[in-house]
Design brief:
By secondary structure, the chain is of the alpha+beta class. The relative contact order is 0.20. The structure holds nickel (II) ion. The site of nickel (II) ion has 6 residues, from helix 2.
Length: about 190
């Protein structure tokens, strides 16, 4: 296992669409998943997409720790998802703070669909078919955007809500304060 270097905003690998994984059981995919898990643990984020470690393949990993799940939401153990598809369940959206390991030090308020269904393959190549809401839905949408070359600032509707994380305290949103440092980054 190895901790991989994380690409930062501006690197071309973060701007182009990633390719589908054709053989989920290939040894290099297994190794990539292990390395991404180690890299995410080291960086302390909620999720990581393969393009963020300079690999242009459709693979994301994510989790929602219990202390980050909102009221009525459950924690989500680490999930591996290959070749994902997302389907919004209704038009409703909400805005909340996001960070990104490829955009270190910043936070932005990003609108995302409230509820989604997502499909794909897990780390063993088995089908995943889940519904998600809350932070779980937000993280999945953020990670899957990476596979289409989209970083969260491009989803923002008000760039006045893009801020250094140390300045988030000046924004009036006490109900759901963002975590310190990069713990909430994805
Ligand atoms: Ni990200």
């Amino acid at each position: 296992m190895a901790i991989l270097k994380i690409a930062r905003m501006g690197h071309p690998v973060l701007r182009r669409p990633a390719q589908p994984i054709t053989d989920p059981a290939a040894p290099e995919i297994t190794r990539l998943i292990e390395d991404m898990i180690e890299t995410l643990r080291d960086a302390g984020g909620l999720g990581l997409a393969a393009p963020q470690v300079h690999v242009p393949l459709r693979l994301v990993i994510f989790h929602v720790p219990g202390d980050r799940a909102g009221p009525g939401e459950s924690a989500l153990s680490l999930t591996i998802l290959m070749n994902p598809l997302i389907e919004p369940l209704g038009p409703e959206q909400n805005s909340d703070w996001e960070g990104c390991l490829s955009v270190p030090g910043l936070r932005g308020q990003v609108p995302r669909f409230d509820r989604i269904r997502y499909l794909g393959l897990d780390g063993e190549g088995k089908a995943v078919d889940r519904e998600a809401s809350g932070l779980h839905a937000r993280v999945v949408q953020h990670e899957c955007d990476h596979l289409d070359g989209i970083l969260y600032p491009r989803r923002m509707t008000d760039l006045g809500l893009l801020t250094f994380e140390s300045e988030v305290k000046h924004f009036p949103r006490a109900a759901n304060p963002p975590p310190e440092a990069d713990e909430g980054a994805a």
